[in-house]
Amino acid sequence: MRRFTIPRDVFFGEDALSYLKTIKGERAFIVIGSERLIKDGTAPKAESYLKEAGIESKFFVGVENDPSVETVMKGAEQMKEFQPDVIIGIGGGSPIDAAKAMWIFYEYPEFTFEEAAKPFNLPELRQKAKFYAVPTTSGTATEVTSFSVITDHNTGIKYPIADYNITPDVAIVDTNLVQTMPKSLVANTGMDALTHAIEAYPSTFRSPFTDALAIKAIEMIGENLVKSYNGEDKARKEMHIAQNLAGMAFSNAILGIVHSMAHKTGKILDIAHGMANAIYLSYAIEFNAKKAEKDYADIARALKLSGSNDKELVESLVKYIGELRTAMDMPHSLKEYGIAEDVFMSKLDDLAETSVADPCTGTNPREITVEEMKKLLTAIYYGERVDF
Predict the structure, then answer these.
(1) Taking the model in full, what pTM does it have?
(2) Which residues of the chain have pLDDT under 70?
């Protein structure tokens, strides 16, 4: 028996945030990344809507880009004092991920991160509060996923929390909230979303539900990503919906080696997650095509790429991803990104071993050894074709 889990409700479109006027509760704990959302009016608007619903609000401000154990425990302690029955994460992936983890330790103070990091090991949540997620970037889709990643910066240990319990109760996908994203963020988050959909489609844990969502997301992203990067209003709104569909797909199908590598190189080589995905995606497709050629050909057809057979369609897909990088001024290799060769080589063994051990490798369509991962990472560094 299989399971497919998404939020109970997804409210989307212009001014979807106004749904907060209708919710029930007494106290709302709102987690945001920085004061930017206060200054641009997003957080005050949420607070105003909650006030209309008769709900008192308290803000937690200061979630870093790579949310830490300390931040999560600080937030959980403030929740304990405030006793919210509504928890709202607003922002990109980091504040929503942090809010999810705070929720766990608010409801179960004696629980540990080591226990939380065991897949699908969480106790039943919603004993004290329900969870609402409001994304302000178009990529991570954590508003519809069962994942959260928290880092212990003292030890360098990442705690990947995966449990259907932390899938938000409600996702509010307000297309007005992404109009001011800078172009670099549009590119990074957009390529993250595309990678979510492309990796979900040939995943060994796929299903007809995830296939349908992934293909639709790919079609929408293909139509809108570059237009969104160039500032087109409608395209930016469409991308916010598309990344949500991609999130529903990968939350249930899981991912592959693009994310395995991105998870490890993000910290070790200091590469933004979406940027890493953008660089790695085409090389991983070349590697995986020996097992998943038909699936990638399906994706190429969805994007209306040329090719008279599956092999030619996969080649068109690889070329297309390179063209996306060019159109959004993104590098095509780790060397072009600016990683020094001696630094890369000194980290290669560690990167290969930890990437293979990453949970996402388990659902990659083609198995990969540590030696093959080293060859793949080396090809990515120099921008070489992957033919093994």
Answers:
(1) 0.96
(2) none
